[in-house]
Amino acid sequence: MEQIKIKSSLDENISIVQSRLGDSDDLVIRRIQFGNERNLRAALFYIDGMVDTASIQNFLLETLMIDLPKTMLSWELDRSDSVLRFLKESIMTVGDIQEVRDVDSQFTFLLSGYCVFLLDGYDEGFSLGLIGWEERSVTEPSGETVIRGPREGFTENLRTNTSMIRRRIKDPRLWIEIRRIGNLTHTDVAIAYIKGIANDKVVEEVRRRLDRICMDSILETGYIEELIQDETFTPFPTMNNTERPDVATAELIEGRVVILVDGTPFVLVAPALFVSFFQAAEDYYQRADISTLLRGLRYVSFFIALLGPSLYIAITTFHQEMLPTQLLISLAAQREGVPFPAFFEAMLMEVTFEILREAGVRMPKAIGQAVSIVGTLVIGTAAVDAGIVSAAMVIVVSITAIASFVMPAFNMSIAVRMLRFPLMALAASFGIFGVIVGLLLLVLHMCSLRSFGVPYMSPLAPMNIPDQKDTLLRLPHWAMKTRPRLIGQKNIVRAQNSPTKKPERRGNQ
Questions:
Q1: How does DSSP classify residue 51?
Q2: Are 298 and 290 spatial neighbours (Cβ–Cβ below 8 Å)?
Q3: 209-240 CB burial, b ≥16 within 10 A, e <16
């Protein structure tokens, strides 16, 4: 579509802006006359609440109307752009000044918080970077808390987020590209990567998928994730997200690409591997042995959250001989008055707990946590006393629910909660054989996934021995000398450190 050029008549330009915005109350049009003989007419356009009005007063109005130098008398006014160039290069004391030549770019700047300056008699103008809207300050992220480590998280301001990454990576090879996506929102989307470390094919694929997006609005990174992810029909996330600048920085240094969206504190990381969702930021701030223990605990919790109810159903329904006699007698005594089979029991408790968990999230913070805890205790105890479920089933469901909270990535926890129900159905139908078949299908599905061309299960499948130093285990930093080979293919050397040698013992002198 052909772009409409800015008119040379100031009154006509003002009329276009007013008609396009429907005489909106937050549109401010400040007409001014300046010059030695007040013969130059101009107008400032800005949206109230999105600009710094004090800067407009100090850097524009006073400069143009009071402090304009007398050299204006000798300036040639017969050239079409002479006054504009003079104002831009000699008068306006604003750092971010960009030329505006068409109506569409004028509205893009205007609705992004810029101040637009148009001069009568000229078919172009300036956009002045005087953004000054209210924004949330940098605070600790609530979803990724750590005991040891930085306490700052991303905010809803894109430039604040990119500056927090720049502050950590003081290297010119950190490249940041900006795209505007959304026919109505024109949301700024940034691609950040380290040139020479990130795989060029992955970077180009990210660019291609972002440029392919055509929709009215981009309000959060979830929009971007659904539109550019490799696989749609899978419960497993193929893109990671974080609201911690230190995590995003570490991912960039490993060779990944980070996607930032204006208006949200969550950033996307690509490519994402299955093992990435079990790695927490604090793993790299604690000693290696502590981090390895905690990471192993997360994998154990993953299997408990995935298989806990289904194994209980399979064993109590089909494979009672696997239980010790005393435990079997105890479970039989508990289930003596329960009228429902184990599968219905488990489904009832799981659905009830999911309802309580969702209610605790959506309710006001002051009462949400109390309601979820009290509701779980009261309903669980009442259900056992009423003979609807057994006490053992309440224990199994509770341990399963707690284990699902151990995983650092919330999206992986949701995937486990979704997969728990079909595995319970297989256990109720075929016993442990059905659970094993379900796990095999699950593993085959995970091995077939890709994240921007990288196998989802790497470095486990395909097995890559050098990359095992930061997978199930976390070796000391001096041992992690290379980056993941399938991600940082161009520059895999990360460090050349060696373990510290113990000082020699000296006798008494």
A1: B
A2: no
A3: bbeeeeeeebeebebbbebbbbeeeeebbbbb
DSSP 235: S
Provide the Cα torsion 109, 113, 119, 124; round to 10°. -10
Three-class secondary structure of residue 505 per DSSP: coil
- Report the candidate in 132, 128, 101 with the shortest Cα–Cα distance to residue 117: 128
- Measured N-to-C along each axis, helices 288-317 and 342-362 cross at an angle, to the nearest 10 degrees, of 140
Q: How many angstroms separate the CA atoms of 456 and 321, rounded?
A: 38
Calculate the alpha carbon distances from 452 to 200, 204, 276 in Å. Answer: 12, 10, 15
As a three-state string, the secondary structure of 469-492 is HHCCCCCCHHHCCECCCCCCCCCC
Say how many C-beta atoms besides its own lie within 10 A of residue 438's C-beta.
21
CA distance 316 to 393: 11
Q: Is 182 left (phi over 0), alpha (psi -120 to 50) or beta?
A: left
| Helix, strand, coil in percent for the chain, rounding step 5 | 50, 15, 40
What SS3 string covers 372-401? Answer: HHHHHHHHHHHHHHCCCCCHHHHHHHHHHH
Q: Are 228 and 206 in contact (CB under 8 A)?
A: yes
Contact 184, 217 (CB under 8 A): yes
Cβ atoms of 288 and 224 closer than 8 Å: no
Q: Report the chain's mean pLDDT, rounded to a whole number.
A: 86
C-alpha–C-alpha distance, residues 21 and 29, integer Å = 12
Dihedral sign for Cα atoms in the order 445, 446, 447, 450: positive
Contact (CB, 8 A) for 243 and 136: no
**Angle at Cα 219 formed by Cα 216 and Cα 224, nearest 5°?**
80
Residue-wise pLDDT tens digits, 219-234: 999 999 999 999 888 9
pLDDT at 355: 84
Q: Could you tell me which of 279, 286, 340 has the C-alpha nearest to residue 313?
A: 340
| Separate counts of helices (H) and strands (E) for the chain | 16, 12
> Given pLDDT bands bounded at 50, 70 and 90, which one contains residue 92?
confident
CA distance linking residue 494 with residue 202, whole number of Å: 20
